[in-house]
Amino acid sequence: MEEAASAAFVGSRRSVRLAVLALLGGLHSLVEDIPGVGKTTLALALAKAAGLSFSRIQFTPDLLPGDVLGMNVWDSAAREFVFKPGPINANFVLADEMNRASPRTQAAFLEAMQEGGTTVDGRTVSLPSPFFLLATQNPQGFGGTFPLPEAELDRFGLSFSLGYPSGDDESEILRRWKEDGPLSSVLQVARAEDLAEARQTIASVAVSAELRDYIVRIVRATRGNSDIRLGASPRAAVSLQHAARAVAASLGRSFAIPEDVEFVAPAALAHRVFLSSRARLSGSDAVALIAALTSETAKPTGL
User: Fold this and answer.
1) How far is CA 82 from the centre of its chain?
2) pLDDT tens digit string along 62-82?
């Protein structure tokens, strides 16, 4: 699936791999980046390659929860209210510039991300299965943004940035440019049923007691660090273990190893920790800090 997505998206291979791991593992993801680096292209390419229904929600300050979740509308012929599903009812949902919406609208996603369903006027609506949310946000400091609350950030399994492409990649983007867009080159390589099977395979990947202890020690290290005001939650440890399983399964292994944890730890934890004022003023970066904490944590041996 990485190759299929790369037919349209040219850029960081690590980011493509993380996006594929997130999709296969059902880990809702947050991409923080500036406009124009290919976030929408990557999302559309992944949805097409996986054979999933796709919906894009463009967030604006006046967007209401009903515009996302759906609402009950009056059917004059039937003389009753009928439910009109919102754009969140798709297999693959791109929530574009999520931090431009009001906190009330942002909160509408909490139930969908955690439970795979939504509640509208007391009625619970199940979302399509599989369901995957890829949200993007503008970097902090951009005008017209509302910071995502801690409770919502903690529900994203992974977070990563695409970054600017290299000079060679930017030249390749120009070489590939077509009037009908880059997605015409993307081939469907899977179906929704294949994705469900992949998630079962990932869930069955073995994690030894020693590796679980390694994950716990990494997560707990975020709670006693002077540069971190708020450390990672137990939910973060669960996501890190699941992401490590996804890495192992993608490499054809039925068991996870420390290197799987190392690869995905920054993406699984950085958005879940909040730096102290001193660390922010000194220019510290959460991704680099998590990578350093992970490398400083003693690995289990013999796995």
Assistant:
1) 32
2) 999 889 998 888 888 888 888
